[in-house]
Structure formats: C-alpha cells, structure tokens
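Q: For a teaching handout, I want to show students what a protein-ligand complex looks like in token form. Below are the inputs, and the small molecule is zinc ion. Please produce the holo structure.
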Amino acid sequence: MKIQTKFIIIVAKVINSPAMGGLEQNDLSAKGGTLQLLDFVAEFSSARQDRVFNNIYMTRNFTCPYCNRPTTITDPNYFEHFVVIKIKESNMGDVGLKIIAITCPNIDCNKLFLKVDLSEAVHEYADVYGVGEILENWRLLPESEARTLPDYIPEAIRKDYYEACRIRDLSSKASATLARRCLQGMIRNYWAIKRERLQDEINDLEDKVDLDTWTSINAVRSVGNIGAHMERDINIIVDVEPGEAQLLIGLIEQLIDDWYVVRENRRKRTEELKNLVFSKEKQKNVSTEND
Ligand SMILES: [Zn+2]
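A: Here is the structure, written as tokens, with zinc ion included.
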C-alpha cells in the first residue's frame, strides 16, 4: 500500500470516529478527490486535531477498574460522543456532555466502564462545536474508584469498603468511619482478635504481622487526626481531611492483598498440588492392578 493511500485511510478513520462528532461519509464524498479530502481535514483547527489524536492515544492504555488488568483498547471497545446542550440563557453558557464508554476486552470480565464530562461547548463553525474545558465529571460505572473485591472476602467487609469509597468525596468523615469499621472487621475476621477498642486490637497485631505491614498500619495511624480516632470507639464520627479518608482506604486495599489474596492464592496452589498427587497415585494404582 502506498504511503499516501495509507494516510488517507487513517484520516478518513479519524474523521469518522465518534471523537470527531461522527461526521457523515457524505460530507467527504460531496467534496470528492484526494486533495479536497485533505483540504477538508485542514479546515479543522490544529487544536481540534490535537484533541482528536489525543483521544485516540487515550484509547490505547486502560486499566480495567473491575478486573484491574491493564489492557489496550481498540475501536470496537471504545465509544465517545459529545452532545451539545442547546438551551437558552443558562449561566454556564454553551455546554455539552461527553459520554465515554469502554468495554473491558478481557473475556472473563467484559464489563462496561462509563463516564460523563460536562464541558464547555466551543463553537467552531456552522453547527459544529468542539469540546472545551471540563466543568464537572462523573464516573457512572463502576460507581466509585473502589476495587472489585473477590467473593471470598466476607460480605460485611466488602460492603463497608465499597461504601467508604462511594462517599469519600461527599463526606470524608463518614468515609473514614466506615473505613475504620472495615479495618476492625478484617482484624477480627482474619486474625481472630477481638478487643473493646480498635486501638487495642491493632496493638495485638504487632507481633503477628510482618514488619512491612506493621509499618504501613503505623504510618496511617500517625497521620493527622486518624491516629487519635483509631484510639476511640470506631462508631464515633469525627472530622478528618479528605486525604486522610483515602489513606485509610488505601491501607484497607493493601491489607486485603497482603492477607486475604495471599491466603487464597496459597490455598489454590495447595489444592492444585493435592489434586496432582491424587491423580498420580490413581494412575500408579491402575497400572499396578493391570500388571
Ligand atoms: Zn475488566
């Protein structure tokens, strides 16, 4: 394929991509010919083209928030569309909604990621608007930045974790309260430690966990208000900074990996090993009987 032909195909793909507002094929064929096609492309401001190419690059790498696998997203798994909200006399001026949807290409997952940006709609020509500055954005699916926790983690712990993530930006104190309860639930469930106060339960952990884990717990405990609050009843709602709620959430995620995920992986490996030994012995018995 000649370089020029290749280039035209790429250009045509870009123009027809949702990022370009889904221009119809007729818009191109009406002009006809290679040069006109390139002229047509040149009509777009370079800023607009930058955005288009950025959008295409943006589709390349994606870490699925459901299965946590880093993947490469190609066109069939990516959707983007900008809808201009044509309404009179809004004090926001011309705005539009940019919808971005991605399906995870991992066949064990295939879940839908969905987000919406409310952006300034920048008039370009005729009835065409470009995407301006983002004013608000909402991630619709999955609902929060929470990781999807495996089913073998007790339901009460999963619920508290999801809830803590969901309300983190709305109320950091409610989020931190749930996160502390979640931490207590994990210590009680995984280590079978049960004391009156979370502080005492954490102290009991010191000679049970490795140094890295203990350092992480202590690091979170010594930050801002969290440390003081860990010493009180877990249900007391106290003011914390937004960043502190996230620190607790991060600690929970790390402990889930270090405790539950490691234990489950070890259990699976042992199970596989047992099955292997069992099938080998069965084979041996069959061959002895046949002798
Ligand atoms: Zn996935």
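A: Two things your students might notice: The longest strand covers residues 112-125. The pocket of zinc ion is lined by residues 64, 66-67, 69, 104, 106, 109, 111 (CB under 6 Å).
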